[in-house]
Amino acid sequence: MSWDDLGDLEGEITVYSGRTPDQIDLVFEQLENEYSGLTINRDYDDNDVQVNQLEQEGDATPADVFYSQDPGALGAVHDAGIVQELPSDIVDTVPESYRHPDGYWTGVSGRVRSVFYNEDRLDETPFDSWDELPTDIFSYAEDDRFEGIISTRPNSGTFRGFIQAMVDLEGEDATRQWVSDFMDQDPQRYGSGSTQAEEVNRGGDGDPIIGLGNSYYAARLVNEDPDSPIRVTFTEGDAGALFSVAGIAVTNNVDDPELIAEFARHLVAVEGQEFMMDDNGEFPVVDGVDYVGPLPGPDELNSPTYDLSEFDMELQAANDLLEDEGMMPL
After folding, report:
1. Structure pTM?
2. CA 311 to CA 76: how far, in whole Å?
3. How many CB atoms lie within 10 A of CB 206?
4. How would you label 171-186 residue by residue, b for 16+ Cβ within 10 Å and e otherwise?
5. pLDDT digits (tens, 9 = 90+) for 22-49
6. E strand or H helix at 190
7. What phi and psi values does residue 325 have, to the nearest 5 degrees?
8. Is 118 helix (H, G, I), strand (E, B) or coil?
9. For residue 42, with 0-12 CB atoms within 10 Å meaning exposed, 13-18 middle and 19 or more buried, which class applies?
């Protein structure tokens, strides 16, 4: 499906976004440039703030679309009964594992938990080759060669989602041990994924050499500068390589249902998927759209099988676990 196959977008759309402007605003700008009669009103804030706002406003919300950073928040607005089923032709373009089973939300772009590192700093590590980086997430907590050179961002919803997935896949005891062991590595803990990746890439005194984080932060840096020294690798078959999605849900009482449906179709069309790859370093989630970017494609990854609709909005159990083991608060 291409934008050429779709109807024109004309009118006003109000989007409550849990994603940041640097992640998706260029896509909105492209749509407004393509259709002179389209205005997209953006309201940016944290996912939990947007969900609370939607719940308070209920069916009186001015929002037409909720654009979420993660599946947990999409599940929360569905559970609150404030979003409607998407047209089947939209959700059917996306694999079942990346959308609500009854079509109340759908992923529109994908990301993967990853390991990124500065390839120019090998001689500052105990490793003889970057090929020695482990393919299981537990080694990054247990192997003392990572002590003092590794980093992560534990305050993000995606990190808590990674922890929840580890609990579901490996059990709570094993996950608690992983967090405790990882804290023994004296990791640098960041409040921003962009800052973390930028400092790994910068390679200055005091900057971490290795980071656990979403792959798109590194991909964006390589897209901006192909000579960038940041590189990405992935674990295999465990929560360290979890594939998750950002996605959308449509509120119950939109004024122009066909306009909103066409907007959603544009996001999952080829051009929409390509903009998210080019601008934000993410992965496509639509069958038939090939990944084009600096990282291995989704078909080359060995992510665990995991039902994203199981994500809890609050991720409270994961947050409590992180606080118990001293990783949070920052």
Report:
1. 0.88
2. 9
3. 7
4. eeeebbbbbebbbebe
5. 889 989 999 999 999 999 999 999 888 9
6. none
7. -95, 5
8. strand
9. middle
DSSP assignment letter at 85: P
Which residues does residue 245 pair with via DSSP β-bridges, in sequence order?
Answer: 110
Q: What percent of the chain stands above pLDDT 90?
A: 82
- What is the spatial distance between Cα 295 and Cα 281, in angstroms, rounded to a whole number? 9
* Residue that is written with structure tokens 């409270």 in the block: 316
| Tokens linked to 128 | 């003889």
**Which among 246, 245, 274, 267 has a CA at the least distance from the CA of 13?**
267
For residues 170 and 72, the model is more confident at: 170
Contact in structure between 148 and 185 (CB atoms under 8 Å): yes
- 58 in the Ramachandran plot: left (φ > 0), alpha (ψ -120 to 50) or beta? left
Tokens standing for residue 6: 């779709």
Alpha carbon separation from 228 to 35, 117, 119, 256 (Å, rounded):
35, 11, 9, 45
Report residue 267 as tokens. 């996001």
Q: Output the pLDDT for position 279.
A: 78
- Domains plus CATH for the chain? 3-110+244-299 (3.40.190.10), 111-242+312-324 (3.40.190.10)
